[in-house]
Amino acid sequence: MAHASMSLPDVGNVADYLRDHIRTVPDWPQPGVMFRDITPLLHNPRTLRVLIDVFVHRYMEAKLDLVAGIDARGFILGAIVAYELNLGFVPIRKKGKLPYQTVTEEYELEYGSATVEIHADACKAGDRVLLIDDLIATGGTMMAGRRLLERLGAEVVEGAAIVDLPELGGSAQLLASGLPLFTVCRFDGH
Model confidence over 45-78: pLDDT tens digits? Predict the structure, then answer.
């Protein structure tokens, strides 16, 4: 009886493998911006599995209580990671999207400003939380998410993202603020 052999992807360096599946869209959402689109990573079952496994393996022994994801791509990653780690998930949403009593935080983006919210009962004092988003640009979104969680008494154990855009200064700012960071890959320049 012949056995079919399964062909496994040669991922070599996992960060490079995942980075190679991120699409760059020039001049979106405005001229001069090089948008790093993670949807090809999510669309391909192999890259999605490798991506989620990177996060799960990093945090499986971290003694976390919750995973918080930032609207909107952080929801995709955060919810899957929370499920895989058997933890609850907390959405940090854009203003006006949550139906219950909220706490809000305004922040600056690389091309404007925004406000995010969290339900006032989303976590409790002493909760250990992983904060996750798709990328770090100027760091404003992740810093705002961290401030919201800390205002509710939680401890943000680490900020995590797929992509770091170090030229925009966000990762350096977050690290300087004392937030430990984990990113899977980085894009330098254009």
Answer: 999 999 999 999 999 999 999 999 999 999 999 9
**Cα gap 66→86, rounded to integer Å:** 9
Q: Out of 19, 58, 108, 110, pick the active-site residue.
A: 110
Return the closest-CA partner of residue 87 out of 77, 79, 95. Answer: 79
8 Å CB contact between 70 and 48: no
* Position 11 pLDDT exceeds 70: no
Structural domains in the chain, CATH included, are 61-186 (3.40.50.2020)
Please, which residues have CB within 8 angstroms of residue 35's CB and are 6 or more apart in sequence?
24, 25, 26, 28, 29
Helix or strand or coil: residue 167? helix
The dihedral sign for the CA sequence 38, 43, 46, 48: positive
- pTM score of the predicted model: 0.91
128 flagged as catalytic: no
Respond yes or no: is residue 110 known to be catalytic.
yes
State both tokens at 49. 């599995």
Q: Which of 73, 93, 105, 117 is catalytic?
A: 73
> Per-residue pLDDT tens for 106-127?
997 766 789 999 999 999 999 9
